[in-house]
Amino acid sequence: MFNTIKIRIHQGEQSGFVAECVELPIVTQGSTLDDVTANLCEAICLHLDGENWATLLR
Q1: pLDDT attached to residue 38
Q2: What is the pLDDT of residues 1-58, one digit of tens each?
Q3: Are 28 and 40 in contact (CB under 8 A)?
Q4: At a CB cut-off of 8 Å and minimum separation 6, what does 33 contact?
Q5: Contact at 8 Å (CB) between 28 and 19?
Q6: Could you tell me the pTM of the whole model?
């Protein structure tokens, strides 16, 4: 079983990139796409740390 986290990545107003999760309250930024992707992975892991996966996968 796979779950998908939908994300929007767009250019920042002044520079860099901004990533926003559609279903989760997560927003992060980075100066490059690699930076924003790494920051996003870390933010998602921190947000979901300690969650009860049985209730999330329903």
Answers
A1: 96
A2: 567 889 999 999 999 999 999 989 999 999 999 999 999 999 999 998 887 766 655 5
A3: yes
A4: 9, 17
A5: yes
A6: 0.78
| Residue type, position 44, single letter | I
d(CA 1, CA 57): 9
Q: Which amino acid is at 43?
A: A
For 4, 5, 38, the CA distances from 57, given in Å and listed in that order, are 11, 12, 24
Domain limits, the chain: 7-56
Q: Which of 14, 23, 16 is nearest to 37 (CA)?
A: 16
* Alpha carbon 37 to chain centroid, angstroms: 8
